[in-house]
Structure formats: C-alpha cells, structure tokens
C-alpha cells in the first residue's frame, strides 16, 4: 500500500469500503500532542453552514429535525479558486452537492435513513437531532485542530486532502462538524451525515468522494457527578467513563443488528486523537471480518475546546458506502455516482434489496512507465489520470518498480484499466487518453520511458 493511503486511513480508519488492514498502521499509535491550547475555536464565518438555520426551521417532529442538502453546494466554482493552495480539480468540484445521502431512493440515502430510524426509535430517552446539509467546505480548525489532530499529521497534507485555500478544505470526515454542533449547544445528541473527500487511489472500493455519518451523545451532568473534574487516566479509569463506553458499544451493536439482522461482531481498541478510549467495530460478513465503524468516548480536550467541558459523551463515525455495498451487494463504488437508469431504477425508499448487476462492457488495459523524481506523489498521478479520463478509469495499479543503481533512479510502471459502465470503449479513444496522459505526466517531473 502506498504511503499516503497508509497514513490517511490510520487517522480516518473506517470509511473505505475495501478491507484494509488497519492494525499495523503506524500513526494509530501516535501519541497525543502535548500542551493543546484550550480556546473557543474560531469557526470561519464564511464557511459556516447555511443548514444550521434551515435545520431549525424545518422541524418535522419531536424526534427529528431534518434538512435537505442545499443546492448552493452544487456549484463547482465554490471549490475552484486561484488560491495557490487550491488543489481541487474540476472533476472533483463537479461531484460536490449531489446529495446522494438525502435521496430517499438511492442506496446511500436508504442506509442513512435506516440508521436515523434506529436512533429515532431507541428507548434511551434521547432525541438525536439530524444534520445532513452541512457545508462540505470546512476550516482546518474544524476538520483538524478542534479534534486534536496535530499540525504535522500526514492526513492534513495536500497529497491526501483537497484544499480550497490554505485554511479551508473539502471535509475529509464528518467529524469536522462535531465541535460546531457541540459548541452551539443546540442538542445533546445528534447525527450528522454528508459527503467527504480524500485524495486516493482508484479501484472498485476507493473513490475520492464518499459519505459518512457521525453520531454524538452527551450524558446528563447528574449521571457524571462521580467523575467531576477527572482528567486523563483518572477519568478513563472511572466507572462513569466505562458506563459511557458500555452504552456506546451496546448502542452500536444494536445498530448493526438493525441493519444486518443478528450478526457476529467484534470490538478492538483503536486510536483516534478525538476520543479516548477509542474502538473499532467489525462485523462478520460472508466469512470475513469487515471494519464498519470507529468510535470512542469524546476526549475531554475536544469538549473543552467546544466550551462543553462540563459534559461527557461518546461519538462514532461510519462510512455509508461500505455499509451500502454490503447490504445491497453493490460491487463497485463508482456505481453510486452513476445516473444510469439500470442502476438508479433498482432502488426504492426504505427497501434493502440485492443489486442485480447489468452487463459489464469489456475493459481496455494500458501500461505507462516512468522514472520518478525524488518528491514524486502518487496521488498526483492518479488524480491527473482521472482528470483526463474521468470515471472510465476503473482501476490503476502499480505493476512494476525497480531502481537502477547506476542512474540512481527509480522506475514505476502502472497498469490502467479503462472500462465504461454504460458503453463499449474503442481502442482509439483510449489510446488518445493514454497519449494525453503520457504528455501531461511530465508536468509531475517524471520521465516517461
Ligand atoms: N472520523 C473518523 C474517520 O473518518 C471516524 C470516527 C472515529 C469518528 C471515531 C468518530 C469517532 O466520531 O469517535 O475515520
């Protein structure tokens, strides 16, 4: 696995539908940064969400406040700027604001609704406020600092993240909204769903845009009296912290049973900078263990920074594509983004039914090999290819790498699989795309062989 993916998934472990091995990720065990400054973090007004107002005005019942994704997000010019830090390509800007998670008859929307339904019917006496129309542009403060993600964390690097300016970006996870909702004090419990963006490789289970759902629950102050003022190990060893972790686990186990029927599950310890203790949950699906979510007891410094230091609670985040791929047996993540009637016509609000694959058109394979410069960033290459050929690139894989000791240079060879989901590709059109790539790739400082 290439380095940038390796480190990115360790911070944002769960959202990738593919089965990665996370347990060996180096940054899982990065110690928490010292001396985190407590402050009331400033949220950039320009990127604050128009949904906050719409969510309060569209109260539908006593249990749920629902919003719909504002169409203002479906405007590529919001994401493309001449700022020197902007690295959002037009083909990514064009994906924002599609609102797949709020479409009632789209697999992503169906799974989201099922999760909300579970929380609305829980008998824990808690009302989970619903947010599903947050602005996908967030500040580095919201996405990282408020969550104790240190400034040098690789997940913040432009090789992994789409920056709109130097201080604003396309959110890499829905956790980016935790702090603002905690700080607003509007709800003691909430669910927040949305599209998230990460620069990544391409294959049947990786796509640079996908969806997450975040959940947060704060506990009543009276229940936490015994742990008042406790911090660090004293807090995590307390019976109150353990009670929160137990409630978190049983709530999420119930959610899995609601989605999958009674299913085998296993918990393991994890590391996220914003929760401690942290856990991951895996479920057994067709004989394999699949990671479905990350969660934990909210770190007291995260609560402090949101001016909620008097409260304690839990949080979790899950990837909607992975759940939908399992539930609907959808074999390729790119399908979620297609408008092809053979796909979208198969799904109905509230119904989980197996996807019936339609015929696959034949693939066309092309290889490209080049000498790489010292500062070569693989994601730049993947993205350039996607910028040229778009979604007809089904897969890119590095098939050969060697170093010529005399030249002191390393060569990499990639195989690109081109395949359209709705027509046959001609060799000529693919050759033209590949030729364009061979020319443009030199801009990355590589030397095509
Ligand atoms: N934001 C994490 C990710 O993208 C998921 C996550 C983990 C969210 C733990 C949480 C949490 O709220 O407590 O992988």
SSE inventory with pairings:
Blueprint lengths: L2 H9 L39 H7 L32 H4 L13 H14 L8 E3 L5 E3 H4 L24 E3 L7 H7 L4 E9 L11 E10 L13 H5 L2 H22 L4 E8 L2 E11 L2 E11 L1 H6 L7 E7 H9 L12 H4 L19 E9 L5 H12 L3 E12 L4 E10 L8 H14 L6 E2 L1
Parallel strand pairs: 1-4
Antiparallel strand pairs: 2-3, 4-5, 5-9, 6-7, 7-8, 8-9, 10-12, 10-13, 11-12
Bound molecules: 3,4-dihydroxyphenylalanine.
Describe the model.
This protein is α+β, with helices and mostly antiparallel strands and 449 residues long. Helices cover 26% and strands 22% of the residues. It contains 13 helices and 13 strands. A seven-stranded mixed β-sheet has the order 1-4-5-9-8-7-6. The protein has a four-stranded antiparallel β-sheet with strand order 11-12-10-13. A hairpin with a 4-residue loop joins β11 (393-404) and β12 (409-418). The longest helix has 22 residues, at 239-260. The chain is globular, with a radius of gyration of 22 Å. The model is unreliable at 1-66 (pLDDT under 50). The structure holds 3,4-dihydroxyphenylalanine.
